[in-house]
Specification:
The complex is a heterodimer of chains A (about 500) and B (about 325). Chain A has about 500 residues and is α/β, with parallel strands linked by helices. Chain A is about 45% helix and about 15% strand. In chain A, the strands form three sheets. In chain A, strands 9, 10, 11, 12, 13, 14, 15, 16 and 17 form a nine-stranded antiparallel beta sheet that branches. In chain A, helix 2 (about 30-45) runs antiparallel to helix 3 and helix 10 (about 340-350) crosses helix 15. The longest helix of chain A is centred in the C-terminal third of the chain and has 32 residues, at about 425-455. Chain A is globular and about 85 Å long. Chain B is about 30% helix and about 30% strand. Chain B has helices spanning about 10-15, 30-40, 65-80, 80-90, 170-175, 180-185, 200-205, 225, 270-275, 295-305, and strands spanning about 15-20, 25, 50-60, 100-105, 105-120, 120-130, 135-140, 145-150, 165, 190-195, 210-215, 215-220, 240-245, 265, 285-290, 325-334. In chain B, strand 5 (about 105-120) and strand 6 (about 120-130) form a beta hairpin. In chain B, helix 1 packs antiparallel against helix 2 (about 30-40), helix 2 (about 30-40) packs across helix 3 (about 65-80) and helix 9 (about 270-275) packs across helix 10 (about 295-305). The chains are: A alpha/beta (about 500), B alpha+beta (about 325).
Amino acid sequence: MKIGSIEDITSIYGHAETVSMQWRSIKLPELKGFSLGVERLVNAVGDLDQDTHWGKFMRRLRQFRFSCMATAYSKNFFAQNLDAILADLSRNENMFGLSYPDARPAYQTLKFYASRLRGVDLAQILSEIVKDYTVNEKKRTLVLVCQTRYVSDSEQALNDAGLSNWSVTSPAYLRDDIAFEQMLVIGPTRWFPEYVFTAPRANNIHVIKYSWIRDSWKHKTAFLSPMKSKAGRILQMVSDDDLSHDLVDADVLLPPEFNLQSIRNKVTDEIKGHSEIDYVQARPVLLEDDWVVLLESDDASSILVIDLHDHESPVKKNKMNEIVPGVFVLLRSGGGGDFIVPVADGIMGKEGIRARACQKRWKELLRDQVLQYGYDKVVNTLTKHGSTRANPVNLRNWMSVRSIKTEFRNDFDAIMATVGLEQDCATNWELMEIIDRAHRRAGHTIRNMLLEKVKTSDLSSLKRTGKMVFELDADAQISITAFQVKKVLDETMPVLPWRIGIPMPQTDDE
Amino acid sequence: MNSKILEPKLSEGFARLGYKTQHGWQRLPEWVRFYLELGHALATFESKNNRYVIALSVPTRSLVTQFIGSGLSCANIFLHPSIDQEHAEFIFSLPEGTAVKYFDKERVRKAIVQQGAVIEGEKRLGLLIEGDGNKTIFIAARDAYKVDVANKEISRLPKHQTGRAVRPPSHLLTQLLRDKTDEYIFQTRIDGVVVGSQIGLSLESQIELGFQVASKEWQDGSLCDLFRVMGEVPSNTGYRYLPQSAIRNELTVAHAGLLSHAAVIFDGSLGFLKWRETFGNQNWVVVLDRTEPNFINACAVVNAEYASRSESKIHLPVPHIPPAVEMMVFARDI
C-alpha cells in the first residue's frame, strides 16, 4: 500500500540522492567451515534433485546453510534446526557412503564442521554486531532480512538481545512509502531485490554479511538510453572482508529454488485412481513466507482478497486473472477445504445431512453415467429429457462437488431423469435449494466475520511479514490466513477440487 | 518537433505551489516541481507523424502520475486553443433537443439545444434556457466553452431559471490559472487516460495544496482540483482524464475517440504490460516504480519500444531530473 505524505515521499527521493552503503563482515570460522563443507558435498555429488530421498536431504542442508547466514536466528530455533541436521547427517551416513562412495570424505568433513556449530550462538554474534548501530537510540532503524520466513525469528533473536523496539521486515514491505534513518541488511546484496538499494528507504544502509561471502553492488540503469540526471551521491564503503582466497559467491549460497516438481508429484499422487472428469485445472501461486497454493486457472473463478487501500470494505472478491504479485489473498488455513461448507452445514443443522446425502448421490450417479457413456452421449440424453443448457462444460460443472445445483429447473429435472431419480425431482430440487440458501448465508456470514476481523486488526504485521492469520471461529476451527502473492506461475496442472485454495509449505526440507 | 513554447506564467505559478505540513505551509519540493514541469513540457509537443514515449523509473510511483497529469492539463489549457475549436465543433454538432449545461457569470443553467441561427454573418448555436416564454439565446463559437453536455436528460426546463451558483471551488486554481479557471473546472476536455489503481490514485489525490500569494498567505485547494479524473470530481464539474483500471479485464474508456494530443499515463508496470497495445497509437507516459514486482519486465518492454524508435528527436525543456529518477524519452512513428 502506498498513500504516503509528500514529506515521506520527499525523504525517499532524498535517500536516493544521498544514500551511503557500508559493508560489515563477520568472521565465524565454524560457520565458514560448515558452509564450505556443504559446497564441497554439492560439488562432489550435485544437487541430486532427481533423486527423491537424496534430493530432499541436499535441499535441507542447503536451506539450513542459507538460513544460518540470512537471519539473526534465535538461540532455540538455531539449536533445534542444528540438532535436526546433525541427526540427519548421522542417520544417512552409511547409506550415503554406499550410494556415493567417492563423496564419503566430503560427507565426513561436513559432519565434522556441523558438529563444531554446536558451540556457536548465531543470535548472540549477530546481536553484538547489530548493537554497534544503537549509538544513537533515536535513529529510526529497520532490520531487513531477505525472506519473510525469517522475520519472526529474527525479531525474537533481537528481542532476546534486548533490542525489542527494532522492526524486522522483508523487502516487500519496502514497497510502501516509508523512510528510516538506517537500515541493517542481513546478508549480501545479491540476496535482495535491486530496489532495496536503487530505491532506498533509508539514508544509511549497512550490509551485514559473513566475511567469506563475496559481495559488491553496482547501480545499473533500467533503460537503454536514459537522459542525464542530476548527479546523486551514492557512497559505498567496504570493511573487514576476508582476505583469504576461498571466498564464495553470494549466488552459490542461495537456497534451492521452489521445487515445482514436488508439488506436481504430490497432486499426481492425489489424482491417482480418479477419473479425468473429476479434475479441475489449477495454477500454482507462490506466496510470502514460502507457501504455495493451487488456484483454479479458470479466469472466471474468484477468490477473496484484502485491499489495504479500502478501509471501509477491505475484503473483496477478485477474479483469478486479477491475482497478481503483491495482492493479499485470503485462504482457509484451519480445517482445510472450502470454508463455506462447514458454516453452511452449521446453518442447515440436521436438515443438511439429508440434503448433502442427496447432493452426493445424484452427482455420483451422474458421474457414473459420464464414466460409462462419455460426455457426448450423456449430453444427448439430458437434451432428450428436456435440458436446454446441456453441454460438456455445463455437465462437468453440474457433476463437480464445488457446484450445488443447476441454475434452472428444467436442466435439473433432465439430470434426475437421466440418473433414474425422476420420482424424487421435486424433493431433491427443494433440498438443493436449502443447500444453496445456506451457502449464500454462510458466504455472507463469513464475509462479515472477516470484515470485522480485518477492520479491527492491526494490519501493519501483514504488510511487514506478508502473512496474517485471522481466527474466525475457534469452535468450528475456521481460520483464514492472508498471504501476499509473490508469483503466479504460468503452468497449470490437473488437481482434485478439494486441493484448490489450500496453502501448502513450498518445502518440507527444513 | 516541439512547436509550442512553455507558458512562463504557469511555471511561475507552479513555483508558488505548496503543501501543508504540521509546521504550516511549505513550498513543493524539487521532485514535485520536476513532474509538474515535465507535464508542462509534454504539452509543447506537436507532431502529426510521431508520438512520444516518456519512460520514468522512480523510487516510488506515489503522486508521480497526478503531478505529471496536472502539469499537462494546466499547460494544455494555455497552449492548445485548438482544443477549444474541437470542443466548439462538437457542441455545434449536437442534435436539437440535447440537454446541456450553460455556464455564465459564475452560474450554471440547464438548457436544451435549439435550431441555430446566423447572426452578423456568424453561425450561432441556439439554446433554450427557460421553459416559459421560449427564451432562447444564441452562442458564438468562441463561447462554446460555456456549454457542455448535461449528465442526464432534461424533460422540462424551469419557467424561470436563475441558475445555480458555481463559484470556482478552488482558490488555488483561481490563483494558478487566472481567467482559465472556470474553463478548467467546469468543462470536460480529455487530455488523456490514466491506467492504474483507481482507489490508490484517488486517495493520493486528496492531498491538500496551496498557492502562495504573500509571504504568509496561502490560497488553499487540493491535488484533485488540478488532477481531474472522471468519477473523482463533482458531477457538475468537468474532468480531464479518463480512468482505466490496471487490473480489471474490461476496457472502461472509449479509447477510439481519444484525440491525437491525448496522453496515456501508465501508473505502474502492471497496467502498462496489460494495456499498452490497446493504446498503441497514443502518446505514452510510463511510470515504473522500481519496487514493483513487474518492474524488470516492464523495463524490458520499454527498451524494446526504444529499439523501434523513430529517427525524430524530442527535446523536452525540463529542469534537472532528480537523482532518484531515470528518464528515457523517444518518439515512435504513428
